[in-house]
Write a structure and sequence with these properties.
By secondary structure, the protein is of the alpha+beta class. The protein has one domain: Alpha-Beta Plaits, CATH 3.30.70. It has 2 helices and 4 strands. Strand 2 and strand 3 form a beta hairpin. Bound molecules: iron/sulfur cluster (SF4).
Length: 77
């Protein structure tokens, strides 16, 4: 489960974020929601833009569901 304490600094502020300790760089979130997730050079994904409409939120939630290690959180701020 994603831990806000391990939120990668690259994540833009907002609800969704990637826990850099949990992420295994599998690219699944980017395949689901490439407008919102991107891979860093350090080997973990991060949220590059927060969704601003229902469609975007659904894509980010699909990315959460697709993540095999539950590295994406939705309790960010
Ligand atoms: S789906 Fe999860 S483990 Fe895979 S790159 Fe995205 S955050 Fe990392």
């Amino acid at each position: 489960m994603a831990d806000l304490e391990n939120k990668a600094t690259e994540n833009v502020a907002g609800k969704f974020y990637v826990d850099m300790e949990e992420c295994i760089a599998c690219d699944a979130c980017i395949a689901e929601a490439e407008d919102y997730f991107v891979m860093s050079d350090e080997g973990y994904a991060y949220v590059k833009i927060q969704p601003t409409d229902d469609e975007g939120v659904e894509l980010c939630e699909s990315a959460m569901d697709a993540c095999p290690v539950d590295a994406i959180g939705d309790d960010g701020e």
